[in-house]
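User: I'm preparing a small set of examples for a lab meeting where we compare how different chains pack in three dimensions. I only have the primary sequence for this one, and I'd like the structure in token form so I can line it up with the others. Please keep the answer compact; I'll paste it straight into my notes.
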Amino acid sequence: MEAYDRLVKLVASAAEDVDKAKGGNKAAGTRVRKIMQEVKQAAQDIRTGVLDFRQD
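Assistant: Understood. Below is the structure token output for the 56-residue chain.
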């Protein structure tokens, strides 16, 4: 499922910035928030895809 792969990549890409944000780096915190918004959309896409599987 393409949306799931995208979700996994987004979460992995945020790992370094999360560590930086914990250390007080404000720019990293902004990047994490942006990535988390994309994660939210990817998760919604997965939910929609799962519903489509169920209806078939």
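A couple of notes for your slides: The mean pLDDT is 93. The longest helix spans residues 26-55.

User: Perfect, thanks.
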